[in-house]
Amino acid sequence: MKYDDWYDMSTHSGQESGLPRLRQWITEARWFTQETWIGVGLVIPATVMMLVIIVYPTIRALWVSLHSRSFLNLEQVEWIGLANYEQLFADPTFTIAMTQTVLLTVGAVVSMYLLGLGLALLLKENLPGLGVLRSLSMISWVIPPVVIVIIWSWMLEVNYGLVNLIFGIFGGPNKSWFGSRQWALPLVTMLRVWKDTPFVAIALMASMQSIPKEYYEAAEIDGASRIQKFRHITLPNITYISMIMIVIETIAAFNSFQMIFIATGGGPVNSTEVLGTYVYQQAFMEYALGYASAIGAIMLLLLTVFTIIYVKIEDTD
Amino acid sequence: MATQNTNRQSGRRTVSDRFDSWIGEDTSIREAIGIYGALSLYFIWFLVPVGWLALSTVKAGEIIQATELIIIPSLENITLANYEVVLSDARFRQLFVNSIIISFSTTALTLVVGILGAYSLSRFSYPGRKSLLIAFLATKMLPPVLIIIPFFIMMWSLNLVNSYIGIILSHCVRALPLALWLLKGFFDDIPEALDEAARIDGCSHLSVLYHVIVPLAKPGIAVAAFYTFVTSWNDFLFVSVLSQNISTRTLPFGLYLFQSSNSINWGATLTAALLTAIPSIIFFALVQKYIVKGLASGGMHGH
């Protein structure tokens, strides 16, 4: 663009040859590289920050995972090769945490996608009052996770939580739900779904609203039913945003830590232990930095493999 | 629709007829009822817990832990005592101030770095530009619990544990990738002819950015600011590791300690929780109309 301006100006100034033309070329080239350098320069602060604060620590963590290192004495580092990884595969708690992480991730992502899709279809309708509901729905997404846990602990509190009070009326059970080995994992999964469903729904809705109205009108002329329209127009047009949402939410659910740590701390008896809480516990309670990093490295590996495969599959479709 | 026409012709408009025109032509009344019904199920699930929290904070101590269902307490049992307790607590005020300092600094830093970066990604072409954006987004994949270990070691050797700086930097890099992506999406929507015109008038890149791009991308910047603010305000993990005492602790972590250490005082805990959520909710209310647009345009540009 700028380049063309220069070119125009040089032709305007008439016939030039030899030295002046060469000089012009040099100025032009210098200008062009200068522009590029400004562009590069502007993105440098962000890049350097990411490199120093995220990329370098990650590489360092992979390095730490090959050592025995304790928080109690950070100076003392001992190279132990792959011993942490060997120990990992023999650790029953790791197996439990892994299984539960997968259960939580699959359960949470599938439920929030389906519920989000349903909510998006409802909210995209053109009915009075839906604008307000669209904004209200996002509240659970905005609330700090700590507060979400407090809200639900309060709802489910034994004896005087709202859920138990309502159950009491109908003669249902009254118990500490988060303290139940059977219910704890489904409940922490539900917390994630409660928090992120509106986000998925609003993103899907935004994508649905950008589908041209003519598609639907044409389908109506052909006598398509609501379900046919959904199947053949809506779904194919939201695959891209669906892919993004599924990837984002899978990564977030797989990295779950906060709400579970606060709600149950991984208990009762490991029944909500996931990889995130296990890394934290190993690193900051057992002070086994090397071992914790090894678990984290496995998480990173699995997430990378998942994302690459998923994006590839979606791309070829 | 046929009945509607006959009613119109006869000049009498029934209630259901009026409702018909109110909800638009595409939807029949039965469908509308179905939609409202399904939505109410969703919103019972979303809103009842939040409403119950808010309601509980104004209940007097004796009835907050009633073992029978009291939905609306009688007037003499409504009290602001919980708010007095929480707001007069010096620790709560300290946590609040820390949260404000950390989240505002994080937002300012992320926006400056993000706006410069997004301008570069949106307006310049150089090798590796596309991969760079993907690389930024890919860092969201790194498990935070993994990063925090070496990050803690790094902050420890720089003597930055228990300082605002360490926490702000960690929050900033958590928010930056998506903030950059959002900002770039909004910048891409601004016609390049506008900044070219300013460039021809002799503006430098920075002044184009300041006088042309930033004013036009205000909604996008608001969304990015909101996202960054919430990321920082809501964070628990980084604060829990990097802050050693009340001088740098933020509300969410303080709330966790409060909730887990005390023999639970539900009235105060719930009130503190509600007060912790309010800044995020207010910020959301201010920018919510741009968020849908932001998500839509972000999604579009991904193609």
Itemize the secondary structure elements and their pairings.
The complex is a heterodimer of chains A (317) and B (303).
Chain A: H1 2-12, H2 19-64, E1 67-69, E2 77-79, H3 83-89, H4 92-123, H5 130-137, H6 139-142, H7 145-155, H8 162-169, H9 184-209, H10 213-221, H11 226-237, H12 239-254, H13 258-263, H14 275-284, H15 289-316
Antiparallel strand pairs in A: 1-2
Chain B: H1 2-10, H2 15-22, H3 29-57, H4 61-64, H5 81-87, H6 90-123, H7 129-138, H8 144-157, H9 164-188, H10 192-200, H11 205-216, H12 218-234, H13 237-242, H14 251-261, H15 266-301
Summarize the structure.
By secondary structure, chain A is mostly helical. Chain A has 15 helices and two strands. A two-stranded antiparallel sheet of chain A has the order 1-2.
Structural features, described:
The complex is a heterodimer of chains A (317) and B (303). Chain A is mainly alpha-helical. Chain A folds into two domains: 2-64, no CATH class; 83-316, Orthogonal Bundle (MetI-like fold). Helices cover 74% and strands 2% of the residues of chain A. Chain A has helices at 2-12, 19-64, 83-89, 92-123, 130-137, 139-142, 145-155, 162-169, 184-209, 213-221, 226-237, 239-254, 258-263, 275-284, 289-316; strands spanning 67-69, 77-79. In chain A, strands 1-2 form a two-stranded antiparallel sheet. In chain A, β1 and β2 (77-79) form a beta hairpin. The radius of gyration of chain A is 28 Å and the shape is flat. The two termini of chain A are 36 Å apart. Chain B has 303 residues and is mainly alpha-helical. Chain B has two domains: 2-83, no CATH class; 89-301, MetI-like fold (Orthogonal Bundle), CATH 1.10.3720.10. Chain B is 76% helix and 0% strand. Chain B is built from 15 helices and no strands. Chain B has helices at residues 2-10, 15-22, 29-57, 61-64, 81-87, 90-123, 129-138, 144-157, 164-188, 192-200, 205-216, 218-234, 237-242, 251-261, 266-301. The longest helix of chain B has 36 residues, at 266-301. Chain B is globular and about 70 Å long. The two termini of chain B are 41 Å apart. The model of chain B is unreliable at 1-11 and 299-303 (pLDDT under 50). Classes of the chains: A mainly alpha (317), B mainly alpha (303). Chains A and B meet through α2, α4, α5, α6 and α7 of A and α3, α6, α7, α8 and α9 of B.
